Amino acid sequence: MIQVLNKLVATIFLITIGMLNFAQPYSVGIIIKNLPDNPVILGAVKGDKFIAVDTAFAEKELVRFIMPKTANTGMYRVVMGQTTYAKVMNETPQQLDFIFNNEDIVLETDFKLPETKTKVIQSAENEIWFNFIKKEQIIKQNINELENGLNYYWAKDDTDNAIKSATEYNQLQMEYDLFVTRTAKQNEGRFAAELINTFREPLLDGYLTKEQRKELFQKEYFKNLDFTDEALINSQAYTDNIFRYLISYNKKDLTQEEREKEYIKAVDIIIANTNKNEVVYEFILKYIVHGFEVLKLKNVIAYIAENYSGTTCQTDEYTTLERQLEEQKMKVGTSVADFIIDDINGNQITFTEMLKDRNIVLFWASWCPHCNELLNRLKPWQQQSKYSDIEIFAISLDSEKEAWKEKVLDAEIESWYNLCDFQEWDGKAAMDYNVFATPTLFVIDKNLKIIGKAQSFTELKNLFN
Predict the structure, then answer these.
(1) CB contact burial 346-385 (16+ within 10 A = b; e otherwise)
(2) How many Å apart are CA 82 and CA 42, to the nearest integer?
(3) Per-residue pLDDT for 161 more than 90?
(4) Contact residues for 460 (Cβ-Cβ < 8 A; gap 6+)
(5) Burial of 162 (0-12, 13-18, 19+ CB in 10 A)
(6) Which of 31, 282, 378, 391 qualifies as a cystine partner to 312, CB 3.0-4.6 A?
(7) SS3 for 328?
(8) pLDDT tens per residue, range 284-297
């Protein structure tokens, strides 16, 4: 009875799609069994980012979204909420990824097991994609099991079983590569085929040692991968591949310094193989930099800044990425630029004329929540006698004078030098100091030299301890 009802719901939805075609080009409908009474979020996938675009509630297990005319071809995700277990264990919510490529879509899944219970009712792209993923995972699991056995036999000097496993291992790898290339070729011209092509891997000879196979993996990894298709930015294809390559350099028992040296080797190889398309290259470089920021591997970021700053193209993200890299060069001891900006009363302030022995240059904005938190902690900190000789130059990146003035008054920081040129990120001071995020703080001495940098109150406080 439930199956009949689901088929009826799907049929009604398909009819509805036809009636809506005059108003909107495409619709997405997902029948979700066992769905709790909570909203389902639809979002676009762009590397490791999820960009929410719509929210809907289910009606008789059916969640429906209308795709805007501006929707990019790419991977999309529905986030369905957490299971009871996930809530207790603070785990990620249930989700399902699918392809949108200018077609109406109807899927059926189960809230409890979206990875294994998804069926494609309507969508040529997703029919190809889900069929591929299902078979790919089975073959890949078999390869991994063979490899584990292979490593065990070689470690135990069990030559007969090792040779037998090596032959099977090599054969299955070739079958896997043939499966990937054939599926992509059969569906050439579809977005699913472009995604499938990114699953190709180097063939690793089972007769080699584990370490030799790892070296071959690192050497041959990019041989059959194409990093020129800008459309794949709207998926996890590129970032998943880069992540997989990077972790192959993360050996156990390495010190942080040794680990950073290994990652630097990987970065050079990645960049040499992904710089054929400027837009893709910038996307990947930004992903790498962000990843090493999260890991707090500052030496790797400094290396990237030193060697690859200025190599990106003039895309929308150019300013942020380039400043992020250039900011790494603004080390302690580096001289900074003077600036002349009007204060909150309209008076022209020249930085070098107001310098004390220690000065904080704070870049902030009224719309920045972390900035507001910082202001609340920075003011009482400065009022302590041992910090009262520090001058604070608060440069706002606001564009609206009233919002800026209101925040200055609310925060009661009128005693600072409150400055703003209303040019936001394009102001001369923001550009000279390579500001890419707010808040950003520089501690400057009377000779215009950096004596400290921070992006939070805790980091600032530690500079003076």
Answers:
(1) eeebebeeebeebbbbbbbbbebeebbebbeebeeebeee
(2) 15
(3) yes
(4) 360, 378, 441, 443, 452, 454
(5) buried
(6) 282
(7) coil
(8) 999 999 899 888 88
d(Cα 431, Cα 328) in Å, to the nearest integer? Answer: 14
Least confident of 6-10, 416-420, 432-436: 6-10
Q: Evaluate whether 125 touches 49 at the Cβ level (below 8 Å).
A: no
Query: How far is it, in rounded angstroms, from Cα 156 to Cα 230?
Result: 47
Q: What is the pLDDT of residues 244-267, one digit of tens each?
A: 999 999 988 899 999 999 999 999
pLDDT above 90 for 122: yes
pLDDT band at 313 (very low <50, low <70, confident <90, very high): low
Under 8 Å between Cβ of 98 and 107: yes
Interacting residues of 78 by C-beta distance below 8 A, sequence separation 6+:
30, 40, 41, 42, 43, 63, 95, 96, 98
Count of other CB atoms within 10 angstroms of residue 332: 11
Pairing relation of β-strands 26-33 and 62-67?
A: antiparallel
Q: For residue 314, what pLDDT is reported?
A: 46
Q: What is the pTM of this model?
A: 0.75
CB of 336 closer than 8 Å to CB of 445: no
Hey, what domains does the chain have and what are their CATH numbers? 2-122 (2.60.40.1120), 126-327 (no CATH), 340-463 (3.40.30.10)
Supply 326's token pair.
Answer: 């250039």
For residue 230, give the DSSP letter.
G
